[in-house]
């Protein structure tokens, strides 16, 4: 009832405040069940994206219930059975779902312990709990499973039973084998692309030549089809066949015979002058935050005033596996299999798009090979659902092409960051001003009155495309994420300018605005240190009183051999730091680069404080993965486009980091105090900044626009 209340109203259900996602999903039985002997079934609304979250959550449950991890059976998120935890994003899964499961499991253990004591006619303190059994010294025993019929979990959590103290942990904090890896390692069916349903049809979408184009006629294309059929609704078009081969062949043949109309519209910006275009656009300006101390409180006039501007292009998700979805519509009910990060949000938009009741739609999560943001998963799910409704009774599989994925999925917004600093005679910052301009970073489903789904904008009765927004800063922010300084500046302010024109569709991409903001801030800190004739590490520490921030900076620098006096002439070392979202994990990165024909990152030395690390191996994987993706963004990636369309629709035109270019990565995890903090996005911004600073030290040339390519360096030299 409480879950339905939250889903229907968007409000927090009445009752006492509960930890994490328990606040909106308040019944213990939503999280844990003991239906199978020897196993606990665990339901989380967070989804596995390859980040190992289900393993970490299993460790938390095993810890609190005194089980072995192999006794914990994690279930993929499903709108019929799982708590509604909105979207798996923002490095919040351990904080939100992990906290909820920790408290739910602790209270569940308490209830079963009381029941075991009653059944064995002893005090609860007389029982030991091990591997799910409640053991008395005289040999008598009960278990979660023998008591399952006596303990009612269909009750609201009280929040009164505290979890274990960290000093008693035996599972949490220890390396654990990833639950999701065996199938992937041994080539077993693991991804949504591997799913096969009886009688399944295969479909390929036919996209317009440009976003503004509208379908004039499909008659010639339909007449040319062999062993395939064409399904159309306005300008939304697909071919369906019995096999993927036939669907692909039909899509190629049909695409050549479609007649499109392209109405006169504003052309896309000039890719080469994108920062200038961003500055000219109308924008919704807002003060993000400012220091309590005002400008006139600075006693002495500044000895120097510095300013610099930094930018990044539009970025594609570039998922290795293009988006895929399956759907079936039977007896008025729609079932969708998807790798969406937000199954409940997707269900809400599917209900809007098709005029269905949410209760008549089931959305099941199935893992895919890579995501980290709002890619094409939700759009592919709409495509499959639309076709399933057009072909009732038969399951339909939609596989996007590489061109679909690179040209039609939402992009990470391009951005410009302007920084100014007033410094004293020693070069220390007196006043700091940060301004970021970009499109919004949130265009996900389930958050507006109309669907945020690509296909719904191309039907005969289309819904309007939505302008991307930014989440409130209290929820992590969007463009302004990490625009607030992580240093102790006496006076500072941050402003955001959300563009009101959106030539390319933008939405959430890993780390959101933190990527470009940290790149800008940490590049500027190096520039200020150089102007003052001071070491970049010393300069940062002089502005930083946070002991946990200082610890990661000093640890990364020590392990990397800062300042790199031993390096060859063609190599450089740079440093970058941030506390993610100003509230999450602390991360410092030292990058060692080689400046040859191209810039090559040879080594990354990373120090991170994520609070209590649930699975240290998982933390290392997440930090390393974020850093490697940041290398790709920093050195290679940019969405390319002409006046009408995106042109970077293949790996040739949208290059990403190759395996041969992956640097050695050394991740050190500091012993962190307090609750666990997310790791998936903490290293992205610091890595980009460290690379940029290393390039500047190696070449004596500051590159302020991403990506840092040989062509861009040659332009600056010229």
UniProtKB/TrEMBL annotation:
Stretches assigned to coiled coil: none
InterPro entries for this protein: Ald_Oxase/Xan_DH_a/b (IPR000674), AldOxase/xan_DH_MoCoBD1 (IPR008274), AldOxase/xan_DH_MoCoBD2 (IPR046867), AldOxase/xan_DH_Mopterin-bd_sf (IPR037165), N-heterocyclic_Hydroxylase (IPR052516), OxRdtase_Mopterin-bd_su_IorB (IPR012368)
Residue stretches making up the Aldehyde oxidase/xanthine dehydrogenase a/b hammerhead domain: 186-269
Any matching Pfam family: MoCoBD_1
Gene3D superfamilies, alphabetized: Aldehyde oxidase/xanthine dehydrogenase, a/b hammerhead, Aldehyde oxidase/xanthine dehydrogenase, molybdopterin binding domain
Signal peptide per UniProt: none
PANTHER family: ALDEHYDE DEHYDROGENASE, BLL3820 PROTEIN
Protein name: CO or xanthine dehydrogenase, Mo-binding subunit
């Amino acid at each position: 009832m409480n879950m339905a209340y939250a889903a229907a109203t968007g409000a927090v259900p009445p009752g006492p405040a509960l930890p994490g996602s328990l606040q909106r999903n308040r019944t213990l039985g939503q999280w844990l069940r003991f239906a199978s002997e020897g196993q606990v079934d665990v339901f989380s609304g967070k989804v596995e994206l390859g980040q190992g979250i289900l393993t970490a959550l299993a460790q938390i449950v095993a810890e609190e219930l005194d089980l072995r991890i192999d006794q914990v059976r994690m279930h993929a998120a499903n709108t019929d059975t799982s708590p509604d935890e909105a979207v798996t994003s923002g490095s919040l899964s351990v904080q939100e779902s992990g906290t909820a499961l920790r408290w739910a499991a602790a209270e569940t253990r308490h209830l079963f312990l009381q029941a075991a004591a009653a059944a064995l006619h002893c005090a609860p303190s007389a029982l030991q709990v091990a591997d799910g059994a409640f053991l008395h010294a005289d040999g008598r025993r009960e278990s979660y499973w023998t008591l399952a019929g006596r303990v009612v979990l269909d009750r609201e959590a009280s929040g009164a039973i505290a979890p274990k103290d960290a000093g008693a942990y035996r599972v949490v904090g220890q390396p654990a084998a990833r639950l999701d890896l065996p199938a992937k390692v041994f080539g077993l069916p693991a991804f949504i692309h591997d799913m096969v349903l009886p009688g399944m049809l295969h479909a390929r979408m036919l996209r317009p030549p440009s976003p503004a184009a509208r379908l004039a006629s499909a008659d010639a294309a339909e007449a040319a089809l062999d062993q395939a059929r064409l399904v159309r609704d306005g300008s939304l078009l697909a071919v369906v066949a019995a096999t993927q081969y036939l669907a692909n062949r039909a899509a190629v043949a049909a695409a050549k015979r479609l007649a499109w109309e392209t109405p006169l519209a504003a052309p896309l910006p000039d890719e080469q002058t994108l920062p200038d275009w961003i500055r000219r656009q109308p924008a919704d300006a807002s003060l993000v935050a400012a220091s309590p101390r005002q400008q006139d409180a600075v006693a002495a006039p500044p000895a120097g005033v510095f300013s610099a501007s930094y930018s990044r292009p539009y970025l594609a998700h570039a998922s290795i596996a293009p988006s895929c979805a399956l759907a079936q519509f039977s007896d008025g009910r729609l079932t969708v299999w998807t790798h969406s990060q937000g199954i409940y949000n997707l269900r809400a938009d599917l209900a809007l798009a098709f005029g269905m009741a949410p209760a008549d739609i089931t959305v099941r999560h199935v893992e895919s090979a890579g995501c980290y943001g709002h890619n094409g998963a939700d759009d592919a799910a709409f495509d499959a659902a639309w076709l399933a409704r057009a072909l009732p009774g038969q399951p339909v599989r939609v596989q996007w092409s590489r061109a679909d994925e690179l040209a039609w999925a939402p992009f990470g917004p391009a951005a410009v960051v302007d920084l100014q600093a007033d410094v004293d005679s020693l070069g220390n910052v007196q006043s700091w001003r940060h301004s970021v301009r970009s499109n919004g970073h949130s265009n996900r489903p389930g958050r507006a009155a109309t669907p945020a789904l690509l296909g719904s904008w191309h039907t005969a009765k289309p819904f309007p495309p939505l302008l991307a927004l930014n989440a409130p800063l209290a929820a992590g922010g969007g463009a302004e994420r990490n625009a607030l300084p992580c240093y102790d500046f006496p006076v500072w302010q941050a402003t955001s300018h959300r563009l009101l024109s959106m030539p390319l569709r933008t939405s959430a991409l890993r780390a959101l605005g933190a990527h470009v903001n940290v790149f800008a801030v940490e590049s500027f800190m190096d520039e200020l240190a150089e102007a003052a004739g001071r070491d970049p590490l010393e300069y940062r520490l002089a502005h930083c009183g946070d002991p946990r921030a200082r610890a990661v900076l000093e640890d990364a620098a020590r392990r990397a051999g800062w300042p790199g006096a031993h390096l060859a002439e063609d190599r450089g070392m740079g440093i970058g730091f941030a506390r993610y979202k100003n509230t999450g994990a602390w991360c410092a990165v030292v990058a060692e680069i080689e400046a040859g024909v191209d810039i090559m990152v040879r080594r990354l030395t990373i120090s991170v404080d994520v609070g209590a690390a649930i699975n240290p191996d998982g933390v290392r994987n997440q930090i390393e993965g974020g850093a490697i993706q940041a290398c790709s963004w920093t050195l290679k990636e940019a969405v390319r486009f002409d006046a009408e369309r995106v042109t970077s629709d293949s790996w040739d035109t949208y290059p990403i980091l190759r395996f041969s270019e992956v640097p050695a990565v050394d991740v050190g995890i500091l012993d962190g105090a307090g609750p666990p903090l997310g790791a998936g996005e903490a290293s992205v911004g610091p890595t980009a900044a460290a690379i940029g600073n290393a390039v500047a030290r190696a070449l004596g040339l500051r590159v302020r626009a991403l990506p840092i390519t040989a062509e861009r360096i040659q332009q600056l030299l010229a």
